[in-house]
Amino acid sequence: MTSARRLEYRADIDWLRAVAVIAVIGFHYELPGFSGGFIGVDIFFVISGYVISRLIWSGIQSDSFSFIAFYERRARRLLPALYLMIVVTGIAAWFLAPPDDYRMFYGSAVSTLLFSSNVFFWLQTGYFDLPTLGKVLIHTWSLSVEEQFYLLFPLTTWLWSRLFRDPTSRPSLVLIITGTVALCALDELLIKHSAPAAFYIAPLRAWEFLVGSIAFFMHRWSPIKVETRLVFASTGLVLILVAVAAFRPDTRFPGLHALIPCLGTAFYIIAFNRERGRPRLPLSEIGTFLGRLSYSLYLWHWPVFVLGRAALPLDVATSAFATAALLLCSLLLAYISYVAVERPARERVEWLGLRGSRMIAGAAVILIAVGVHGYAHDGYADRFPQSQARLLRYNAQTTEPFYRTHSCFLQPDDPFATYDFDACLKPAANKRNILLVGDSIAAHYAWGLRKDLPSDAYHLLQLTSAACPPFVELKLETSRNCNDINQLLRDQIKAGGFAAVIISGNWRSHLETYGQPPARRFDRDLNALLAATQEAGVPVLLFGPSIEFPAPLASTLFNYERTHVPVGNALLPLEASFKTDDHLRALARSYPLVQYVSILDTMCSERRCPLKIDAETPIVWDVIHLTPEGSKFVVSQLKPQLDAFLRRLEQPSETRAEDIMAGGSSTAPRNSVPRVQ
């Protein structure tokens, strides 16, 4: 093992921190080539495992380790800069955040101060998630994971040292490596059952810290020759860069995929373990400078991005100029934070005669009290006129009764057993039963359809699951229930028992996800569904893409009415939705029993769609999901097509297909939609 002498400054670690923070920022700022930049967090985890293992074991072996000194040092290292970021972010959010978002900010701030924001955001995770001002502190989840690691790892290490004075002994290493592999395997297995838990929960991320510990324990076996060390360092960087460039947000992660950047980080660290003959670092001065700033830069980059974009018109906020300006602002704030707060707090044990740890504890108590008060007072909704605040009254929680969430509309984390067969799929006697199937877009029509269909003659069944395309051949691993839901759909189609099926989905998103090479599954999977209904003789009403905006409509209208700052194209529907509409229309023509309904043709005129149902109610509450009033309004506008479809259901089956084909791709006249704005 190594002695306390090894606690010298390692420039290569700071250089690696720079790589990690650049990857994360590139991902969050949506820069080209950084689709997998989220793995920067995993690099940080491995680095932390290495650094903390080196610190603790050096202290234990020199009989100088102190739990109190360790925790105090960690607090001075991490908390003052974090507190500053929270305070400044809270002040800025006061002027920008709607009440619900500001309330969530306070909740996340309190959880961050209590080292539990990873749990907070895990519990807040849902299919309807969008980048919002309420999640301006979401990046602190990784800090909470690290802090939880710091709380438990010293005691675990101390106990381990009672069993193994030399942690690099064969029995010790075998147990540590076995535990690391087991935790990684458990993480991989849990992704299928609860991907958010596998992502956010600290015990399931502990193996990444242990990879860093193993890199420290490998010191005695680290390569000596420069050529070998270059191979290790280059291999590590290649693994990291491949993950940054090739991974996507929909990559199965963390689990086994996280091994790639974690092992890459370990290879890199091992290459520099030996003091003599370390390879030269490219752009070493810039890299080590950014590495020293990496913590402050990580703290500030996301609030600057979220608040900056919220304060700017959409066209400006998404421009390259704005992105560059926000990057420079993040760098400037990080430098100020590092020079004025982070570095002095790390170097000084006392400030103005007061012990730093006591000042940190006092600040935490005050900030927690402020956060609890803001959360309890609903984000101080009285900052705004009631009419403006009511624009924001709908969200994923308040729409649950209308979508029938957790009964007929399952969330990705809901087990299949949650589905309520009696309430959602039990046919009604002496009525025509119509089955509504699809994802959240199908669910948002449920309220309007239940209100519009004549209850004396028709009964609406509902089989919907969030983020689950209604593709009977699709196997999806990111949902606990999607495969079972689609198997049930397949069985229901074969069994019959209902008069017709209404199919809807987030077609624009699904076409982008499943319609790209090399798979190009979208057409194949949708064709398989329609062919199954055709074979069973079941008439189908296929709804086209729903109205979708580039930014959350309710908050856009709220900010516009409050500030009158131009919103650019934020109030115009996505052009890609119209292209998807044409794609589905052409596909549906191949099936005689399928009647296609273009929502966009019915609702929009000259690429402009309704924005409000009344002065206080937007048509959608995020970018695409209808408010209850919006659902009723859209279905009412579809009434001519719906009535025509229902009339055909009353006809003999031998003439039904011909009539549906004659109806074709149904659209209402352009002038049939009132201009609701």
Distance between the termini: 71 Å
Percent of residues in β-strands: 5-15%
Task: Please report the total strand number as a whole number.
Answer: 11
Spatial extent as radius of gyration:
28 Å
Helix- and strand-based class?
Answer: alpha/beta
* Strand order of the biggest β-sheet: 3-5-4-6-7-8-11
- The average pLDDT is 89
| Main β sheet profile | 7 strands, parallel
The residue fraction in helices comes out at 55-70%
Residue stretches low in confidence (pLDDT < 50, at least 5 long) are 1-6, 667-677
User: Based on CA inertia axes, which overall geometry fits?
Assistant: globular
The total count of helices amounts to 27
**Assembly level:** single chain
Q: What's the structural blueprint in terms of helices and strands?
A:
Blueprint: H1 11-28, H2 40-61, H3 67-96, H4 99-113, H5 117-124, H6 141-163, H7 170-200, H8 202-217, H9 226-246, H10 259-271, H11 284-311, H12 314-317, H13 320-347, E1 350-351, E2 354-355, H14 356-376, H15 386-389, H16 400-403, E3 409-410, H17 421-424, E4 432-438, H18 440-452, E5 458-465, H19 482-495, E6 500-504, H20 507-514, H21 521-536, E7 540-543, H22 553-563, H23 575-588, E8 594-597, H24 599-603, E9 612-614, E10 617-618, H25 628-637, H26 639-649, H27 653-663, E11 665-666
Parallel strand pairs: 3-5, 4-5, 4-6, 6-7, 7-8, 8-11
Antiparallel strand pairs: 1-2, 9-10
Helix pairs in contact: 1-2, 1-11, 2-6, 2-8, 2-10, 3-4, 3-6, 3-11, 3-13, 3-14, 4-5, 4-14, 5-6, 5-7, 6-8, 7-8, 8-10, 9-10, 11-13, 18-25, 19-21, 26-27
